Amino acid sequence: MSQTPDAAPREFKPVATRLRAEFEGVHPESTVTRCVNAARHGAQDVTGRATPDLVERIARQHLKVLALAFAEMR
Question: Read out DSSP for 8-51?
Fold first, then answer.
């Protein structure tokens, strides 16, 4: 079975699920998925590893900042 570019490894699926629930009505699922993937890649590039807890914290912060930016634009 091949993975799509947006598919996260299995250990990050619960992270995406929690963040989708937390930001439901704020961000579409696709945005949450992109933030989780970006956080995973960023953590890997900067620290050499990407643990689920670190990825969740980074992605949550990105999603909060995006929400604030979108609110200011309105």
Answer: PPGGGHHHHHHHHHHTTTTS-HHHHHHHHHHHHHHHHHHHS---
Number of domains the chain is built from:
1
Which residues have a Cβ under 8 Å from the Cβ of 46 and sit 6 or more positions away?
Answer: none
pLDDT digits (tens, 9 = 90+) for 37-73: 999 999 999 999 999 999 999 999 999 999 999 888 8
Domain limits for position 32? 10-73
What's the CA gap between 73 and 29, in Å, rounded? 21
State the pTM of this model: 0.84
